[in-house]
Amino acid sequence: MPGSDAGMESRVTPWLLGLFLLSLLILLGLARFVWLEGQGMARQVDQLAARDLARLVQINRLKSSFLEQSLALQRLYATADTQDFGRDQQARRDRVQRQLDSWQRLCPECEQLNALGQLQARFEQHCSALYELMQAKPIDWDAARTQLYAADDLAMQADALLTNWVDVIEDSTEQGRRQLQASAHDLVLGVLAASLAILLLAGFVAYFSWRLLVEARLRRRLALFPERNPLPVFSLSPSGLLYANPAAEELAQQLSPDEPQVSRLLPPDLAQRLPQLLAQEGSGSWEYELGGASLQAGVHCMADLGVCHAYVRDISAQRQAERQLSHQALHDAVTGLPNRRAFQQELTDWLEQGHSGTLLLLHLNRFHALIKTLGHGVGDQVLEAAAARLSQALARSAASTQLYRFEGELFVLLLAAEDSLAASQALVLQLEQAMAQPLQVAGRDLFFSLALGASHFPQDGREPGLLMRHAHSALQQLLQSSGQGLLHFNAQMDHRALELLELEQELRQVEQRGELELFYQPQIDLRRGQVAGVEALVRWRHPRRGLVSPADFIPLAEETGLILPMGAWILRRACAQAQAWQAAGLAPLVMAVNLSARQFQDPQLPELVRQVLAETGLAPRWLELEITESAAMQDFDQAIRCLQTLKEIGVRLAIDDFGTGYSSLAYLSRFPLHKLKIDQSFVRQMVSEAGDLSIVHAVVALAKGLGLGLIAEGVETERQEQLLRELECDEVQGYLHSKPLPADELERFLRAHCPKISD
């Protein structure tokens, strides 16, 4: 077969080459003919254009000369300068005559020349008459004007005659050009038609010749296809394996180095199905595992030859990629936990199967603020560490559940109803204890707490979206109150959620509407019995709701970010008020201002403090900034830097609500503080609860040991104050002495209890 193919090639190739050379020669001859004809036509066009161009140039010169004569007459009439006119008139006449003679040589047959000569003769007569009139004394202006108008009329007639002549020449030129173009177009079409016929003939013969050659080469290449195919190829018959190509042997060696048998690469049940496939002249496909690899086989049978061909592919990489994509679709890229989609599928399955249980939505507190401070890279590390910590806690719990990453700082759990309430509560406690220890991330000790919102199914809903919304409502209410622990959904929360949404919209305009007010509560020095300072407390005087509790709008402002402009307004107003009291003659008092966690994490806080102090004129030593323990411990290194910068400014620093957060003596001793503030929850029960009294006693001892001032808030009874005095607490604050007062009422209080500066 290869020999016959080669013989056919040897016979067809010279004949094909000769045919193409003949066609090429004919085409070249036609092209030469067309080029020569085109050159001849181009010369005719050039000659025609050169002749008419010379005529047009001469006409333009004549028009210019007639115009020049007309302008000279007008100047003569206008200036009566006969001397200049007489000197140049003969030169103008000679110029016109030369141009007429030149035109006569260019176009002896042109009838317009006689008319132009007559117009020029009559024009010269009027020129002479006007010249004589302008020389007479006095000048007859009416006669001169008549001669001028007559000469101008002749000039216009000459110009019209020349313009008409131009049009005639252009029309003649255009007609000649079109005739030449039509001739060239017809010639080109004829040549193209002849060339196309030759090309079609040559192409027709060449196509069939090419097909013969291609078929011969294709037959030769097909004979070598199995040998060169990179995929395993087999030839089979009912009696067994007839052929296997080198690629099949290589794959068998890779999968079974010890026993490289190519027959093992074929589907296990192929031998049983092969007679049926041959009888039907059908095909089949298989996917199967062999030696840890995924193989795919396709079999095609030819009944007339009694042979089947099998093609095998190793699809292990493809299946691995599919499994990886499937895993990525249902797992979070940061934590490796099952993601929101996996959770929704699981919850939907539970609900469709009629299961009952609890949905727990976990919120990693202060995570959003950390991202703003340290960036998303550190945030991803925190999420990964938190997921690992929570997963370890779940593994040690009695409840059987899976942790899912929902979104952002949210995780979610599903608890089956068979897990007892005690087991669920124990699980929440284990999770909180697990997060009580700092996370070691990016060389920092970062503290986080958990807030959990719960919804129960089917009691709280039978739809995944509704259950998530209810759990989220519980979580939001928890974040706006204590911010930690577990809160279960109840029906009132939906109403509360709508109220908070409306409150948020109104809160965004509260500063522009002037609805914020500052109240001030005095702080009493127990040793001197005098007012040592005041704490600024913000109030929202709503036009419909009246005074809105800070517990309602401060967490909302913190969550939405509105706390930053609101906090700046509070700081500026409080400092201005402290300076105003001093200007009014009152003794200087320390103005205590609370900073929210979000304010404290704002890198612009020190600059804001400097700016407010400069604007209000308040000395830094009369401003005390209070931060909570939890805010300070969220990012210890950042807290150290911020507190140190504030101390360098000269303001006083205090830890608010001490004892309710992450107490650590090692960390506390490194903070550049001036004062600790005992939380009112301990003060309120210290008279009746020995444990709370012990805590207060320990805090007092701690403050004395660290050289810090101490103030107790929430003092409402004389007995509480007496115990604090016995414990040597420095200052107290509470309703025993005064409730928070507006600025004018507090000023009256201060004038009654504080000495003036002059005193």
SSE blueprint and pairings:
Elements: H1 2-79, H2 82-106, H3 112-135, H4 141-228, E1 233-237, E2 240-244, H5 246-255, H6 270-280, E3 283-290, E4 293-302, E5 307-314, H7 316-330, H8 340-352, E6 357-364, H9 367-374, H10 376-396, E7 403-407, E8 410-416, H11 421-436, E9 439-441, E10 444-446, E11 450-457, H12 464-479, E12 485-488, H13 492-507, E13 516-525, E14 530-542, E15 546-548, H14 550-560, H15 563-583, E16 590-594, H16 597-600, H17 605-616, E17 623-628, H18 629-634, H19 636-649, E18 652-658, H20 665-668, E19 675-678, H21 680-685, H22 690-706, E20 709-713, H23 718-726, E21 731-733, E22 741-742, H24 743-753
Parallel strand pairs: 11-12, 14-16, 16-17, 17-18, 18-19, 19-20, 20-21
Antiparallel strand pairs: 1-2, 1-5, 3-4, 4-5, 6-8, 6-11, 7-8, 9-10, 13-14, 13-21, 13-22, 14-15
Helix pairs in contact: 1-2, 1-3, 1-4, 2-3, 3-4, 9-10, 10-11, 12-13, 13-14, 15-17, 17-19
